[in-house]
């Protein structure tokens, strides 16, 4: 199955995800992350000594050598599948990385609205950090997987880290810059618990301490909406209460592109900086970000780009 172009119009709050099997349980991942699906051939796998327990080895796909991850083993799904599906490899690309994920079979592609996808409760998510949300289709529960979390388990170097000592040009006069950042009010919408906590820790460290965090786009947008009403009642500028919005794209209830479009169009906040912070940033997605009026975008592996962008849009406005 070759990679499909993303045909959904930007900002409609729709998503296409592919349903696949681990054992007899259905899981899902955004079609935008999948380059292609290939038949699993055990003979093509070269083992890697001392690899992470779920890394089966390497395989060659045309002119590239890619890691193959046993997703069922990584997720701790032990039961054998009773279905007749054939094992396949999901070749996925996100955060500028390409990896293969072995699954027990693929069912179909579903198209739905993000508002039909529910985030996991905090109680459940603490035990299943690789699952961010779920959706029920035809009385079947499908769990949506956070592949980024799985990759950070396997490759610790992909975790979000930032050091101003490693960025001396940008970090000139650090105490003054930290003082300026303390007055900036930011909304962050991000459904991944590990990304939320990492971004909050890093922004706190560099001085961006006034951040309100949400695990879905709808609640983040509702706060922006309420701040607009507050500003009107007090005859003030909404920018007195909010300096910028940072949003992921893939989120339950409302995706980041829709959040951005509604802020810019429905609320007419054309001057409110909106930054898309996503693992899906590529040329095609950048075009989508532009189409909904986003002011900037940053890859999740490049937290320094997010900090730089916040500084540019919030501390150094033109």
Describe it.
- The chain is α/β, with parallel strands linked by helices and 318 residues long.
- The chain has two domains: 14-156, CheA-289, Domain 4 (OB fold (Dihydrolipoamide Acetyltransferase, E2P)), CATH 2.40.50; 160-315, Response regulator (Rossmann fold, 3-Layer(aba) Sandwich), CATH 3.40.50.2300.
- Helix content is 28%, strand content 30%.
- The strands form three sheets. Strands 8-1-2-11-10-9 form a six-stranded mixed sheet, with no helix packed on it.
- Strand 6 and strand 7 (97-103) form a beta hairpin.
- Helix 6 packs parallel to helix 7.
- The longest helix is centred in the last third of the chain and has 17 residues, at 217-233.
- The radius of gyration is 21 Å and the shape is globular.
- It starts with 13 loop residues before the first strand and ends with a helix.
- Residues 1-7 have low confidence and may be disordered.
How does CATH name the architecture of the largest domain?
A: 3-Layer(aba) Sandwich
* Structural class by secondary-structure content: alpha/beta
In N-to-C order, the SSE pattern is EEEEEHEEEEHEEHHEHEHEHEHEH
Could you say how many structural domains there are in total?
2
As a whole number of angstroms, the C-alpha radius of gyration is: 21 Å
Fourth CATH level, the homologous superfamily of the largest domain: Response regulator
- In CATH, the topology of the largest domain is named Rossmann fold
Helix content: 25-40%
Q: Based on CA inertia axes, which overall geometry fits?
A: globular
Give the strand line-up of the largest sheet. Answer: 8-1-2-11-10-9
CATH class assignment of the largest domain: Alpha Beta
Distance, first to last CA: 47 Å
The number of helical segments is 9
Number of strands: 16
Percentage of residues in strands = 25-35%
Largest sheet: 6 strands, mixed
